[in-house]
Each structure stands twice: as C-alpha cells, then as structure tokens.
Amino acid sequence: LFATTALMQAQPTITSATAGGPGDEFTNKMIDAILFDPGASGADVTWDFSGVTLTGETNDYAFITAAATGQSAAFPDANVAADNGMGNYSFYKINASVYENHGIYTPDVTVLYSDPEELMTFPITYNATNSDDFYSTIDAGVEIIRSGTVETVADGYGTLKLPDGTYTDVMRVF
C-alpha cells in the first residue's frame, strides 16, 4: 500500500486528513503482479513501477457517510463507507487516531467485526509499526469466523513512478 501525503517535506507523515472521507473518490487499478518486485525500503527511495502491466480491471469507489448507506445500524461505530455503486459497502471508522475496518455489506454477504481491524494508526511516520488483533463473523448462508493479527510497517518514503505519473512525498506502508 502506497499512500501520498499533502505535506511537502523531506519525510512525509500520514494523518487522518490524508486517509480520505465523505466526498472523496478513488480508483483501484489492478496490475499483473507475477514476479513483481516491491523494491527497496528506506529513506528517499525512488520506486519505479512505470513499466508495470495494467490488467485493465479497475474498481471505482466513493467515500460517503456510513449513515447514507441505509445499512449503518449494523456498523454503529463506522462513520465512513466506501461505495462501489452496486449496493456493496465497506464500513470504516476514520478519526484523528485510527483507520479501522468495521465490516462489509453486500446483498448476499455481511461481514461484521466485533473487534475491528486497524488498518492504520495515525500519525504514521517512517519506521512506525503497529500490531492489532481482529475478529469478525461472516454471514454467507453459514457463519464463518475470520480472525487474526494485522502487522503494519512504514518502511520507506520517497518518490513513486507509475504508468500514470510520478508522485513525490510518498510513504510505503505494508
């Protein structure tokens, strides 16, 4: 996961202000990841992925308020939802300290987190780490349990080159 910051400084910092919120839109563009090398970690790194092969598959999303989905009662602590325009929603809590996954609603499957999945804790600076346990149930006609630990590390910052342009002040978080 690469995230850009709005700050123009030598070492970027990711805050909740750069995480997105209602009114923001984004597109995920899929690449052919066979033999993909994520590059080196470190300070002032340039990651040149300008030659990656796009598969042509894209997913467009808009952030809206959780309440605007009509499904927010099942996700009471979520304040933001990612809407793919097809009646499917991913619910998140985004505030000054955390970006949490609270679940997913589709007409066929619902994922509810009783212990949300911390995707990021803010602020994120170079070499920041986080570990978080999560627990969810998936209702897909039968109940499925999903649990585990999310480990995140901000292992580099610098410049990211992609087929659609070059981005500076980028933090790499995985």
What does this structure look like?
This protein has 174 residues and is mainly β. The chain is 0% helix and 57% strand. The protein has strands at 2-4, 25-31, 42-48, 54-65, 80-83, 89-94, 98-105, 110-121, 129-139, 143-162, 165-173. Strands 1, 2, 3, 4, 5, 6, 7, 8, 9, 10 and 11 form an 11-stranded mixed beta sheet that branches. Strand 8 (110-121) and strand 9 (129-139) form a beta hairpin. It is globular, with a radius of gyration of 17 Å.
Number of helices: 0
H and E string: EEEEEEEEEEE
Q: How many beta-strand segments?
A: 11
Major β-sheet profile: 11 strands, mixed
Radius of gyration over C-alpha positions, nearest whole angstrom: 17 Å
Cα distance spanning the termini: 6 Å
Please indicate the percent range of residues in DSSP E strands (runs of 2 or more): over 45%
Poorly predicted tracts of residues: 1-9
What is the typical, i.e. mean, pLDDT?
Answer: 91
The helix content is under 10%
Class per helix and strand makeup: mainly beta
Coarse shape: globular
